Amino acid sequence: MNTRPVLRKVLRYGAYVVASLALLVVLVMVAAYLLLNDTVQGKVQRAVTTYLQERADAQVRQIGAKNSVQIGAITYSFFTNRLEIRDVHVYIADSSSTGGQVLDAGLSHITCTGLTWLDVMFGDGLALGDIEISHPRLERRYWTSKHDTTPQAIDTSAFQLPKIPNVDTLIQRALIESLPTYVRPLTINAVRVIGAEFINSQRSPADTFAGATRDLNITVHDIRAGVEGARPLGSVDVSIATMERAYANGKRSLIVRPRMRISDRDSAVQVDTILLIDPLGLTIRAHQVTFSYRDRAIRIDSFAIAASGSDAAYFKRNGRSDRIAASGRSVLLDGIDLNAASNGTALHVRACSIGSVSLDVLSNMRPPAPRSTGKRTPQLNDLARRIPFSLKIDTIVVPSATINYGEYHANSATPGRLWWDNIAFRAVGVDPKGTMTVSASGRFMGTSRMKAQFIFPLSSPTYSLDATGSLAAIDPTILNGFVTISDNMRIKGGKVQEASFGFTVRGLVARGWLKASYTGLGVELLNAKTKKAGFLNSIVSWVANTFVVRTENLPTDSDYKTGVIKYTLPADAAVMQTIWFPVRAGLGDLVGF
After folding, report:
1. What's the CA angle centered on 128, arms 88 and 237, to 5 degrees?
2. Alpha carbon of 471 to those of 400, 448, 516, 517, 560: distances in Å?
3. Which phi and psi angles does 69 have, rounded to 5°?
């Protein structure tokens, strides 16, 4: 039996059926388009306009201003389910007799995929694909009248403890503040903001700050609002090219390439560079800063802290004081209290380790400049009370550190220098409400091992310090680079076998002792201006070495002497001077100069 004619008939009949069904679908879609397109377009346009107007009204209610919302075009594709919005302009203005502000937002292009006409017409909720907002720009302009004498609060938040953002805050802002609450359930595959820019410009002598955030990119995945049992957000990615601020008091801040990633596995913040500049104070730099929520840790690849401007300019402003500069690498803050850090009011850390640190201290011992205030230099306890947030670090460990200490004196263009290297440093109890203990061991002037411990009661109303230390054998002539400038003398020879000290400081009063075993000590007195030994200086030096200077001091000697530290610190003595001056006073009492 030949089945081919029958098969051809079946195929022909099937083709007719398929073609008829296809035509029917097309006719239905065309009919739906003709009947519903205008309705869907109108409903979409009304929904978009209403949403944008409500967002603007919400801002207006907060500040009592006026607003306007303008939309260039809203286009909805019935067949591709694609929505496009172009040239949205939101303008909010608030003014009075003393000044005003303007919020000017422009969104050139917004696209949304997956918006089906069935959801628009008959659904309570929405299931969307991707929403993309391209290159939005927000500018805030603020001004005050020249007759307005109301003092403006200076925004110095960049120089205070920064808030570590938490996931809950971001979810609240993304869902509660941004999404329409009347659409539930609402699912969105992804929301992308590309190349956003925020500008803050002000025109007033009392400006708080002006600044800009450039090239902000945000991607939010898997939004689930009103879906029972689902995570509100799958993940959030944020990247910014630069964030900069310029404050009315001259301070500036710059943050380069901050990036944030939030997910159910871990959340992290990374920043390439943080730069804080106070032209009359310090410049602070930090590179490659990373914060991990899972590890409760902050890592910093490197940092540097230094006075802004030259040393000459610094001492012209501050007179007799210490100029301190520090740099370091491989910083780890571990065991951070996340709740306290997220509130921005406390920094509680279990342990801080710094791979290497270099500290440079330069003291100005020259007579105060005519405009010097002569005020007491703030000490550690004073600085601790001024910290505007709760600070607590259980332990700080530095396995490798160097300290360079210099003193500028009259009649010398260069400072006298002392230095320590190979220092192992440990601080326990960094808490303004407690007592900090600092222990260190290292090498002094590249030759002699030295150990020291310092106890600072940070909660004390007056500056307090308990210090002990020891020094191994040393050739005292290596100190000539310092004593030539600081004490107008040169050490001619001698050998120190060992030395130790112990003293306390209460307020400006230092009391304690200094022991040293040495032999063959001789000194040469120098002219205070030329730093050279003349004929009269040579005679005075001979008299001093013969009758005044204790050239030998050994425990086996019957006249073995312990130096007495009985010293009143100058009111402008800085922290390093409160350590060094008592030691020098005890050494002078022991040796006789």
Report:
1. 75
2. 19, 7, 9, 11, 18
3. -125, 125
Instruction: Enumerate the β-bridge partners of residue 328.
Output: 303, 357
What is the residue whose two structure tokens read 């190979």? 422
Residue 465: half-sphere exposure toward Cβ, Cα within 13 Å: 29
* Residues 477 and 590: beta-carbon distance below 8 Å: no
Question: Cβ atoms within 10 A of the Cβ of 54, count?
Answer: 13
147, 112 in Cβ contact below 8 A?
no
Cα–Cα distance, 545 to 218 (Å, whole number): 76
Length of the chain equals 593
CA 288 to the chain's CA centroid: 12
- How confident is the model over 275-305, as pLDDT tens digits? 989 888 889 999 999 988 888 899 999 999 9
- CB atoms near residue 258 (< 10 Å): 20
Q: Residue 148: pLDDT above 60?
A: no
**What's the mean per-residue pLDDT of the chain?**
80
Which tokens is 487 given?
């004490």
Taking alpha carbons only, the member of 583, 512, 519 closest to residue 549 is: 519
Interatomic CA distance for residues 232 and 223, integer angstroms: 6
